[in-house]
Amino acid sequence: MSVRGVFDELKDKLRDVVPEAELRIKAELADAILRLKRERNAVILGHNYMEPALFHSVPDYTGDSLELCRAAARTSAETIVFCGVRFMAETAKILNPAKTVLIPSPDAGCSLAASIDAGDVRELKRRFPGVPVVVYINTYADVKAEADYCCTSGNAVDVVRSIESDTVIFVPDEYLAANVAGEVGMRLCRTPAEVDRPASDGRRTLIGWPGRCEVHDRFRVQDVESARRQFPDVLVLAHPECRPEVIEAADFAGSTSAMIRRVRDTDAASYLLLTECSMGDNIIAENPQKKLVRICSVRCPHMNEITLEQTLATLEKKRYEIDVPEPIRTRAARSIERMLTVA
């Protein structure tokens, strides 16, 4: 495909989202990436939070963490370029130890992943011996290596339900833990003292951790109420990393891909997304006939590190390679493989 061809495709999808002058520049970058990708036998994975011109041009696969996990597990390409944050690229490396995995920016971290380390998990296991540990995929490899199961926002409920234990440790997102506990009928305990007190109603126990996503932590019930005052028929969709009271006020809660599917299938005249807001632009491009309520302005500073410029430089220079030490990789792989089996 030529630069002109890339530009025409981007203009067709993003004419109402990105200025034409900017699309011309983006098309040149995307065309160079597409050519290099073929030369290097590379596959590009793009998370749903990528900026629109990147999302709609260079990835071979787009999706949420679970979908990209599956794509990474089955690719035959020699090189994987992960347009997402570091824990995602680490997961691709864990599943593909013999392949080269690159990330376009070394600064693409995650506030939630940074909220816990392997030592914290080992201390929880010491405090609660024999209790199975579920770690959210938004964690680094050394944390996954300490877990029995991994999960994503899309399958967290299924993973927890599949575990036959009266008590389960679930880290690090405290809001996701609360929302999962509510969904499966467990009580959430945040302190050892709470765990030590038996549940009066006989419910199972989910032990949480005080980690939060810096994006989803910012949404409030007032945001939902404001949208409903202005747009009474608006469909409100929230990510499970949002506060439980926000989830309760919303019409739908699900992973990024589940939210995309719900917008695609809904008959609602307008919708509001309570998640990282660049995804709204990507959904607009695929659903131009539906109205996004633009109350959201929250961007993830870490996802925002990934650009077309950085992606091109990564392919050109084969830089920012992800390495996961083998003892950690093999242990982390077990928790991810169990997740994929449940999913």
Structural class estimated from helices and strands: alpha/beta
Count of helical regions? 16
Enumerate the spans where pLDDT stays under 50 for 5 or more consecutive residues.
none
**Residue share in helices?**
40-55%
* CATH class placement of the largest domain: Alpha Beta
Query: H/E element string?
Result: HHEHEHEHEHEHEHEHEHEHEHEHEHEHH
What's the story with the biggest beta sheet?
5 strands, parallel
Question: How many domains would you count in the coordinates?
Answer: 3
Look at the structure and give the mean pLDDT.
Answer: 92
Radius of gyration: 20 Å
Tell me what the CATH architecture of the largest domain is: 3-Layer(aba) Sandwich
List keywords for this structure.
four-stranded parallel β-sheet; 14% strand; five-stranded parallel β-sheet; single chain; alpha/beta; Rossmann fold; 343 residues; globular; 45% helix
Describe the overall structure.
Helix content is 45%, strand content 14%. With 343 residues, the protein is α/β, with parallel strands linked by helices. It folds into 3 domains: 3-108 and 303-317, NadA-like (Rossmann fold, 3-Layer(aba) Sandwich); 113-212, Rossmann fold (3-Layer(aba) Sandwich), CATH 3.40.50; 216-292, 3-Layer(aba) Sandwich (Rossmann fold), CATH 3.40.50. α5 (86-95) links the parallel β3 and β4. It is globular. The relative contact order is 0.16. The model has no long low-confidence stretch (mean pLDDT 92).
